[in-house]
Structures are given as structure tokens and as C-alpha cells.
Amino acid sequence: MQRIRIPFLIIVITITLFPLFATGQKEAVVSEQSPYSITDSRGVVITLKEAPQRIVSLSPNLTEILFALGIGDKVVGRTEYCDYPVEASDIPTVGDLFSPSIEKILSLEPDLVVIGNLGQAQTIDALERSGLTVAFIDEGETLEGTSRLITKVGTLTGVPEKALEVNQAIDDSVKKAQSFSFDPPTVYYVAGFGEWGDFTATGDTYLHDIITTAGAINIASDAVNWGYQVELILAHDPDIIILPALWGSTSEETKRIFTTTPPYNTLTAVKEDRIITSVENSIIERQGPRSGQAVLLLAQAIANILR
Amino acid sequence: MLNRKLYPLFWVTLLALLVVVTLASLAVGPAGITIKQTVAIIKDGPTYQMNATFTNAQHRIIWSLRLPRILTALVAGIVLAVSGMVYQALFRNPMADPYVLGISSGAAFAVALGIYLGLVGGATGVYQVPLAAFLGSAGATWAIFILSGGVRRSPTMLLLTGIALNFLLSALMSLFMYLNRSQLHSIMQWTLGSFSTANWEKLLIMGSISLLALLPIGFLNRELDILLLDDASALSVGVSVRTIRLILLGLSTLATSVTVAFCGIIGFVGLMVPHIMRLIVGPKHKNLFLFSLLGGALMMVTADTLARVLMGTTELPVGIITAIGGAPLFIILLVRRKRETM
Amino acid sequence: MEKNVATIENLNWSYRNKPLFTNLSTAFPKDAFISIIGPNGSGKTTLLRHFLRILPPNKGAILLEKGDLLAYSQRELAKYLSYVPQTSRLEYDFSVYECVAMGRYAHEKRLANLTMRDHKIIGEALEVVKLSHLKERVATELSGGEYQRVLIARALAQQSKVILLDEPVSHLDVHHQREILSLLSSLVKNRIATVVCVLHDLNAVSAFSDLVIMLDKGNIVAEGSVETVLTKERIEEVYKVEVDLHYAKDAKAPLVIPKWR
């Protein structure tokens, strides 16, 4: 038994350490004056010889951005969850957010793969090992981060002027939103409630930034990581409740359930029907070109209620 | 083991501790209600009367959220500890817990399946989940019973069949969780156990069914003692082994299933409490019943309080607290036991 | 009918389609020391288990005083029969007293505690097996022999008419063997109980039995007094070992000495 152990042990150790010896990143061939170059959010310098013609996007928000930048026709692959704009559904999918098919991606022969903050390190690693250029772009969960995001994508894909336009449009929407003059109401965003636990747009989320930019005060700003306790909702008794539709259900149905489930049915906002259901999840949650619209819609809805 | 004469004192001490912890639990929580306010709110009674000391919201938090929740934890603690005691006697194994016959895996599987099929989930009624869980528990236990040959067979057969089915159901549950990744966290949340959705209505249903089911067990202490002997001896002494076993199994399974249906899967209490009490007050069920009852309530209320306050604005699932608290304790007991038998 | 505490009538029983008992019939007379002997696998323990109703007969019946064994309630049966198993491992820290007290179950009222009378009987049972000094000791701390005596005390506390014992003295040293068997014998002589004992030690059987039932492969091959059953031919035939029988002066019961080499 002893005799077999040691060589076996050596083999096992070697196999596990092997990945360390394999060097990772393969940087694309660079030409000195290439304008298609950014430092991605990992700090890796991505440089392309020319504007990418075949892009695979592994994040819904990046897909949206690519279309907003006018280069949706260059997108050859997307994830199942990239559902906006409607044209995106014509593009073949490569799987889900957590484990997309590397094979599928390779078969599409992209010259650029973009991936955002929902991407997994294993995915990036596997793609780079296969020789693809991967740009990980995540500039922080704020509106400011969104504009940096759009700029980076625009630069890398060769349409920086369009990126400027898109960012400007977002700014304009935000300015319009902030022109509504109401006293900032306290607000609670229902990401999840009831049997499955209470979840909200805690202070570290993108939603929080949208809410505060729209002119409201998020009662859960001091909380982190989405989790919340129901008694705090009761204690704060927010002026307005933002209630997006539950997964797999409609807004009306969700509202009906929320307003009849104890203890939520005792909240003032429920009793006085100060519930916003009109803002769609994907607009408000997705960090992308529609974020300006999200802020505006939210501010509008709040203004309507407070009137 | 404690001197027999000290048992009444020990019981009273535990009771006092329980009262203290319960009251303290009422006064703590992230909503920042002071003790003074808590006392005033309790004195105010269940219906809110305008008061300068506290707000309506605070009143509601105490009466509609915290109080039913703490009482639910209390009931759950009692049920799991007493059921654990019964299972340990039925299987003649101090390491048995109420989940060995599929109650937990059945419930979790049913909930996962229900979510996958869209039958339970955000958009359905309040009682959908408990119902699904209960049916799952009942189904799993029944299946184990039938597959193992019923009461005719030895407890060991039941146990082994239970282990096999638990594995199968857990695997299936994982499958459904995987197929349904967007709802994965919902299922996980539920299986970890929580009292956060407790209310008076649920408490009434859960409490009345499970406590009524446990009541007869309090009168079967002699039989429980004798069941620890081998079957032949128990029969020869006059105990209708099969009948008593069936009754005990049925009652404790019912009580546990109902509790799991409303509260999720909270582990370790059913295993630890009777085990610890046995070390302190001995194996006679006349004592074990009373002490497990109190010990279970105490452990659960404490765990739930910790679940609520440890992380400030969010709460931990109580099943995690009992596991983290229980596991080291468990290991200590195992080591002790090993040392004793060496 | 009054003579016998139990009658077995045409008992048939198979184990996994292999018949063991075929039309087995016998009777246990009252106030007798009855020994059941036979080689391993002859069905001695199985026969006892039928009395406990752990194994139902395929055909035939066992009749007790009030009728069919199967008609008795569990408690009633316990007042009639008690049982001392061969080995019994207790893993829980019950005291000796509590172990013996379990024997009173059939006599206890549903929700009441043990009465003064119960305590008296338990005390006496402990006296008889000479374990009074250990009554508060945790039963798991006793030696094998001492624990065997606890089990016998439990059967005594049960105050049953018949005591069934499955090799009660195999784990005891010769001193305690004699003590227990003498105790059982005196119970019989004083008409306190009928003893039915499965024994391996043929000399013990020889010394104490009023009636011997010899089984072989599920059949009763001999039944009667010690001298009629324990003959050289029969023992050699059934046990398949050569023996010498010695008779002490004027004794009818033999000393059985197997030829070891």
C-alpha cells in the first residue's frame, strides 16, 4: 500500500498544480496606432487591430448597449437572458449567464467577447485559453458606472461618438427627471417578499442609485446584499412602494398578493395605494442605455402618486 | 448526570431562563424599539391605543411580527425536541432525529417540485407552500414505511430505507433546483428554515395540530422506556410493541411534518436537545419528556433571536444558527461518547 | 387442562419455505422445571419465540389456561408468561432498580406511578437474585452475569405463572450457575412458577429438571423424565458426539461426560 501511495501522490499534486504553470492571457496582436483599445475592468489591456465584426455578448446589459451603439448587426451570439431589444432574439444564444457553452461561442468565431458583472471567472478563463479576446466590463453599480461602461464599449468597438450620444441621452433623461419638484418620499423596493424572504434594493445595488437619482429616499440604504428584515419595513413605513412583477407573474397578480399578505397589508403605502407597478424590471434593473429612461419613468410615477 | 433531587430545581431554572429569553427576544430587533417601549406596548394590549411612548408601527411590530414569531419558535422547538426524543427511543439510537424517515427530504422535494411546476411560488396563496411541504413529508414517510415492510420489520430496516430515500429525494430536489436556476435561491431559502413569515393564523394551525399530536406522547413514558429493550423483552413485559410504535411514529411524524411545513427544515434541535437532556437527567422518559420540551423551546427561541440580531438589517435563516451552534456540540458529545466506550 | 400451563397442538411453522416444525405437539405441566434441549438449530429458541408471539404459527395452536395464545391481550399475556432472553444489551443508563421495575408494567395502572406493593415486589425480586446492594447502580456497568440476574429479577417481578428462559446461565460462572438454577428450582418447588428453560449444559439439565424435551431439527425426539431422555444412545444420536454416562450411588439422573478426544 505504501509503495503505491507516493507516486500516486506526486501525480495528483502535479495535476492539480498544472493550471498554475499554464499561462493565461493571450493578448491580441497589437499595432502601435490602434484606436480600438481599452483597459477592461480587470485591468487587462484589450487592443484590437480593427473594429470587431463578430461580437459575442455574454451579458444582457452589454447586448443592449451594443444595439444602442448601432452595431447590433455585429453581434453574433448572446445569452438566453439578452432579451432587449426585440431584434436580439434573432441572434443565436450560447446558453445562460452562469455556464454558457464555450463550444458554441467558439463555433461562432467571434473576434471579441464581452462579458459583464454577472459573468463567471471560469467562463472568462476558458474563453481566453481557447484564444479568444475577452473584455470584462463592469464599472460599478451606479449611473456614473453606466456611462463609463458605455464609453468603454464604444471605444473598443470603434464607435466612441455614438457612445457619447447615448450617454448624453441618458443625462438628458436624468435631468428631466430631476426637474420634477417633489419632497423626496421614502421608498421601499420589493425585490422579493413573503415565504421566500424579504429582499430589496439595498444600498450597494444599482437599483438604489436609480431610486435616489429619481429623487426618492431608499429606506434600505444602510442594508447590503439584498437581504432585509420585514419588521424594518414596518418600522420605516415608507411613503411609496415599488413593486415590480414577480417572476412568472403579472403586475396585477403580484400587487394583489402583496396587498393581501400580512404583514405587508398593514403598511400605510398599501392602505393608501401608493404602489408603483408600472416600471418594468428589466428597464430599472439593467445597467444600460435605458437607465436614463428608468430614472425618468420612476420619477414620473412618484410625481403622479404624490400629486 | 445530575442528582435526582435537583431535577425540579433544574426544571424551574430552565423555565425561568425560557421566560427571560422570550421577553428579551421581544425587545430586540433591528427596528430599534427600546425595552421601555416594549413593556409599554405589551401593557397596551393587542389592539393599538394612541400612545405617546410608541407608534402604531412599533405596536404592530411587537404584536403582529415578533410575538407570533417567538411563540412559533417556541412551539417548533417543543415539537422537534419531543419528536427527536421519540425517534431516538423508537430506533434505540441516541443519534436519530425526526428527519430520518423522510420528513425533511420529502418536504424540500415537494417544494422544489412545486416551484418547478409553477404550482407554488410567488404568485400563489399563502398556504400553498405549507400544503405542498406537508404532502411531501407525508408521502415520503409513507413510502419509506411501505418499502421497508412496515412496523413488522425492525427499526433498522426503516432507518436504512429512510436513508436511501433521503438520498434519492435530495438528488431529485437538486435536479429541480438546477433546472430552475432562477428560483434556486427561493428553494434554498425555504429549506434553511425560518420563522420570519410567522403570523397568528399560521401559529394557530401549526400549534394546535402539533401540540395536540404530542400530548398523548406525554402519557406513553413507560412504554417509551420499555421500547428501549429489545423487541422480545418489551413484548414479554406486556407492551404491545407494534401498536405503540405505530402510535408514537404517527403522532410525532404528524407534529414534525406540520412544523416543517410552516417553518422549513431546522436541524439539530431534534437531535441535540433530547440527547443532552439524557446526559443530564437520565434516560427515563418521564423526565426526558418534560426536560426536552423546555430545552427545545429554549434552544429554538434563542436561535431565532440570534438569527434576527446577528446581522443587523438582514436575518440569517435559523437553520444555519442551529447547525453552527449544534455541530460543535454534537462533535463534543461524540468524542465524549467514544471516550466512554473505550 | 388444569394440569398444564401450556399445550402445543400440531404446531406447524416454516422459515422461508423450509419447514421447521411439523405437527409438533407437547404439553408443559404445571409447577415443573421443564428443560428444552437439543443441538444448535433444532428450534429451541424458535419455539420460545412462538410463545412471545413474535412468530405466528402457520398452522396449529398454542393453548394457555384461558385458551388460544393469540387471543390474549399483551398485558394479560405478560401476567401469564415472562421471558428472560439469552443476551440482551442495554445501551441506556437505567438503574438496576428501574430495569427490574419494568417487569411490573403489566400490573401497573395506565397513568399511575409504582405503588407500595410494586416496590415491595421489586425489592423482593432483587433480594432473591442477591442484587439488592446494586439496585441503584447503572445497569450498563454490571458484569454479564450480574446483568443476567437483573433480567431474571425482572421476570420474577412480573409474577407470571410461567417463566421462559433462553439459556439463562450460559454467561455465568459455575457458582452463579448453580445459584440461579437452584433459585429457579426452588420457585418450582414452592409452586410459585413453572419454569421452562432452554439449556445447553446437559448436567444442569440432569440435576434440576422434572421434564426434559429434546428437539432435533424441529422434531421432538424424546420427552419425559431425565433418566428416560438422557440415555447414551439418544445423546450420541442427536448430538453426534460420543459420551459416557456416570451414575452416582442411587442416583437416577446421570452425569454426562463427553469424550473430548
What percentage of residues of chain A falls in helices of 4 or more residues? 40-55%
Count of discrete domains of chain A: 2
* Tally of strands of chain A: 10
Please outline the major beta sheet of chain A: 4 strands, parallel
Q: Into which percentage range does the β-strand content of chain C fall?
A: 25-35%
> What would CATH call the architecture of the largest domain in chain A?
3-Layer(aba) Sandwich
Quaternary status of these chains? Answer: heterotrimer
Approximate helicity band of chain C: 25-40%
- Global structural class of chain A: alpha/beta
Which spans of chain C of ≥5 residues are poorly predicted at pLDDT below 50? none
Number of helices of chain C: 9
CATH topology assignment of the largest domain in chain A: Rossmann fold
Low-confidence segments of chain A, ≥5 residues, pLDDT <50? 21-33
Span between N and C termini of chain A? 82 Å
Element pattern of chain C in H and E = EEEHEEHEHHHEHEHEEHHEE
For the biggest β-sheet of chain C, the strand order reads 6-7-8-3-9-10
CATH superfamily of the largest domain in chain A: Nitrogenase molybdenum iron protein domain
Mean pLDDT over all positions of chain C: 88
Walk across the major sheet of chain A and give the strand order: 4-3-5-6
